[in-house]
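Hi L., both proteins are below.
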Amino acid sequence: MAHIRYRQQHFALAADETVLDCLTRNGVAVPSSCRSGACQTCLMRASTGTPPERAQRGLKDSQKAQNFFLACVCRPDTSLTVLLPDHPAETTPVTVRGLELLNDEVMRVVLECHSPIDYRPGQFIRLFFDRT
């Protein structure tokens, strides 16, 4: 049976349980959203052990090389020591250039990036508002 170690705590993974579900079941707050690996909100890093290849699908090669993985789809066969990133892996300053309400639930947001970003059509992004 695989175990997850997080901040000096050890948790046993139940059969076919994801790292995200294991940590959440044990009271650890892990950011998450889609639970399918698409949004990458649950990005974590294994400091010991190797995450399964499936848990790294969609990540950049540089992230894979550093043992980053998506906790919501990670069902490891071996034990892992895991960490949350200290800060978002990548941040890019942007300026909001336009807002348009398309319907009651959808808004078009036009952003001006201050540096180039590598993205794929349909990819999720997380926005942080700097109040300074």
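That was the first. Here is the second:
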Amino acid sequence: MTWMSDEYRHPLSWKNRGTRAVLGLVALVLVVRLGWGWYIGRALAAELRLVRAQGWPVEVSDLAIEWVEDSQNAAILLQKAGAAHVNRIDSPRNSSLEYTGYPPYGRPWLQLAEASEKAHGQVFALARQARALPRSQFQRAQTSPLFARPFGYLNPLRQTANTLGDGAEWSHQNGDDAEAVERLLDALHIGHCLRQDDTVVSQLVAAGIDALACYAAQAIAPGLRVEPAPTTRPATRQQVQALIARLLDEDLPRRGMVQSFHFERVGGLELFEFQARGTWIIHPLARKAMEVTSRNNRIYHAASSLPNWPQARELVRNCQRIEPAAAPRWTMFGPPPPLTVPRYSRWFHAFSNDLSGYFELHYRVIAERRVTALSFAAQLYRVDTGRWPDRLDELVPRYLPALPADPFHADGRPIGYAILKGGLPDGGDRPVLYFDAGPDVSGNPPAEPCYGWYNDPSQPRRDPIRQYRDLTRFVPPKPSTTKAVDDDPEKPDAGGQQAEEDKGAQQPEQQ
């Protein structure tokens, strides 16, 4: 029969059409993979040559650490201060207590602050000793992998800063303004030390510590007593000038931010290479991610030297942003898919590479430092003249070397200043500083005193708005059903009880 005369072919014979199709497909995939890998590898090599030409680190071995002797290392003393906290005795900021953002904070706050003061004498002493040492080193060596680096020292540092901030306000309320200023300087020194730790995480924690120190200082400044004021221990003019100088010294915050991008570049390159081990087919995806990361870091590095947020924002917009893949819509009806199964096009992107928020936070803290310095300079001016300045340029050069600029404007305009006629509850004038972190949604500051960051509660997205900071101390009038009892604004009147008005608390403290 005819079929018996046909030559028999084994299914795996190269003469078989199916076999030849499979072999051809394999060859095509191999060629495409090799070409793809060559193209991506060449782009990555060119990018890394640009980085090395600038003298910037690419590998872990390139991250040099300048050794700091133990006797000169403030980090050792700060870690001891963190360990010296007594369990279950927390200062108000370290507790879960809710209280107003302006003094008087109420009796529960005072009880916690006083307990912390009695229990944490060693914490205060060690932090004061650390301030005498300008250098710090929390990591003795850069070891691979960088993404496994421990950060256990950060929480105790934040705890110590909270204790110092509350201790500064407690000292001020008890007539010891000299100690209050010293503790503010101690808290700022913790941020100063963390700025020398070249990671984004440490820079973020340092920014938070700077902010809490500024908020405590802004609450203290309106009632600050400077010698020769009649008080237990007034602050000296030299102390206040030293605090102003520390607040306006922005060199280390900027250098810390620049150095953090070097660490992030090396850490990112190492992480992508680690994730791509054993994945030959899709390895070029990891190399592409490395190239994008390095290119973005060069842009971040350039933006970190710019003096204001608008200029930095425009430059950062040139970065190639890669967001993690969103979960499929069908997962709304069930549990989300595991994060270990990424989208094929974003295999090595489990998190966003957008660092614009890091920049915005940096300029927020710079603005807080500047308005805090202005607040203390204005207090000195008031001590000397008996009035508030009509314009901020009256503070230059005796109280400030120059007027600090609003970092949220590109034109270099100074921090804003206004005197609201009759703006206080007693009819007195209300002087305020402000910077434009966002739009001026109301045209006026909130009715409550402003000594820290706040948002517009009417905006669901909580977008930043213009930030006002008060130079005076006052207590806004309470509704009749919530008048303070026994100087505690947290306690409303009992039925039929008539609380006495605390007239002294309503008036801004006179120098």
